[in-house]
Amino acid sequence: MVQNASGTECPWLSAAAFALLATVPSAARSSELIPPSALAQVEALLEQKRQRTPVQRKLDSTLLYAIARARGDSLVSAIPNLGQGLRRALDGRVEVEIQAADDASLKAQIVALGGDIERDDPGLLQVSIGLDGVEKIAQHSAVRAIRSALGGFTHGMRVPLATAPVTASRASQGSTISQGDAGHAADQARAQYNVDGSGVMVCAISDSVNELSQIQASGELPGNVLVLPGQAGNGTSEGTALLEIIHDLAPGASLGFATAGPNPTVMAQNILGLRAAGCRVIIDDAFFLTEPVFQPGIIAQAIDTVVADGAVYVTAAGNFFNFDAGLSGVFEGLFSATMLPAPLTGAGIAAHDFGGGSATDRITNDGASARFPITLQWANPAGQAADDLDLFLLSPSMLSVVDASTGTQDGDDDALEVLLSAADRTNSHLVVVKFSGNDVYFHLNTNGSLLAIGTDRQSIGHGGSLNQISVGAVGVHTLGAGGVFVGGAQNPPEQFTSDGYRRVFFDASGSPLSARAPQGLGGVLQLTPELLAADRVSTTTTMWQTFFGSSASAPHVAAVAALYLQRFPLAGAAQVKQALINSAVDTGTPGYDRTAGAGILMAPAALAGDFEFADSFEDP
Length: 620
Prior knowledge:
By secondary structure, the chain is an alpha+beta fold. 22% of the residues lie in helices and 22% in strands. It is built from 15 helices and 31 strands.
């Protein structure tokens, strides 16, 4: 189960869907022709987009469609999911993010229109407001854009399978020990090198630590955990589960925590805040669907800052499947146009050809009880998008449009479209349309569903940044009689663990990393994830007693980093990262691969300290 980092629990993978992992195909072709009835709706929505005012162009299309539906617009009313899926307060007001300059008159106008400013961060306001006030706010000159608030999520999973066995406790540890302690031979490394993480602070970023006091009272966590003021969060206490795992492997390390918060700005601030508080190792399991795929966003920039300052940064790779398992919910590639007839005007519609002339990609399995938004991003710099792509969802019969995201990108926008509706999308068809601009490299992501035509490169957001250590999942159910990972076919990656690689085209300012980027590809190909670590492990946190997913994996790596830093206190972040990577045992073909990275982390080899530096990325 994936968890919403701002506090709302989001069931992700049912037992039935989990059983389908090995059986759902990802390579079947979808080549049916789109009927005129659906094409006419696509064309009508595109024509409606052309008529938007400058103020309306500041709004994402879900907000625009919700406003139009409330006003009785006949086209929008005929398409069932347009404008649906908005996050709303209990009183019915919509939750929005306003990208704007700091302006007192804007804030006064929001309040005058009945809005509440829930957060006021640099360049971003988190606001709850009536739908009828959104366009009025957009008229203010300080406003650059208004979009639906999506919140954040974590990479934890709880699947209704048998509870994992509990490992016996050891001195300084609680009564429940992660099976990854023995699996990664961290217990052996502590004894061999006489280390326990003492003198190193390890800090976690997740949803919340609601159960911290109870777990401290039980002896599973020490009594002196640092929590940044006002940043304990509110959710399922996934943060305490992360801290328990860290404490199991590095019982001498001091611990800290901050919530990921409701938006990337808050998480970035908390990364910097934890480093300022003395955290030497920081681990997160959070992600935001609005983080840019092809350049460092605000979170990745914060990671770069703390790593440059000497911190080691570890993140969860994600649980949205991998191509090596025959499972893909992502399509990434260069837009290649196939022209569709336009029944109303005859002008033609430029749609992406997914192969063989097919303009659609079918969702083969949407098996989630609470579905994630579907996102489309493309290789334009954040806040500077001039190429304009749109995303449509057609019914299983393809006779009609059931949802669409048609935001305006005209030079000062983000290259992002989002389908918010949580209706069952199994056998529905995705269509990517170029409204204007160049044939650009794009990333279409169902974020947990499966596609008929898929690719690798599921890794998204700050999980693909250049300076962190991204960690995928390998289950402790594959451990042999000795309870230690050995690699090879015995310890394959979880079928749900997200794969790489990640191509980055722009630096933080939006400048191309290569003269060929993006239409000629180029850029930097990041080899991510870097490592695998244990999941399906035991904690005492109520909702995470059997902890699945890369959320459970990442804290194992963070803890071993703490052991390493006690042994080598002058080591820099790059040295620690390379030592961990070089310790890995392969799970497949020798060397790096897109799902397992370098392989499974092994603590004794990491702490041996005998390694050579190597780049973790390459310039293709």
